[in-house]
Amino acid sequence: TGIQVCNEPSHTVPARNLCTFYDKAVDVIRGAGMGASHVTVVLPIFQRPAEEILTKWKEVGGCRHQNICFDVHYYHCFGNEWNGKTCAQHLRSVEEHKKELQQFPAVVGEWSL
Description:
By secondary structure, the protein is α/β, with parallel strands linked by helices. Helix content is 37%, strand content 19%. The protein contains three helices and four strands. The chain has helices at 15-31, 50-59, 87-101, and strands at residues 2-4, 40-45, 68-74, 106-111. The protein has a four-stranded parallel beta sheet with strand order 1-2-3-4, with helices on one face. The protein is elongated and about 50 Å long. It starts with a strand and ends with a strand.
């Protein structure tokens, strides 16, 4: 079972502010009786490099939380970088996603090819 604190936060929110919100949200969820042994708290990474959010998450002390994961959205249809790619190029991008997903607890909440 999981609960996500928000969906697709604005990219204009500074990463530190977003991670501070996430930290407080996890505390509220846990304080409401949704313990780490039963509920995963899902924190979205959206329109930002994962490394940026993970670094800020560590800086605000988020690593003290248990049973959290990050929600990533891998769309291969928005933005000019995807237009005109061959199937092989898309599959190479999927391989890069795989490498990224091995670096932190994650769920792919939305995706497309």
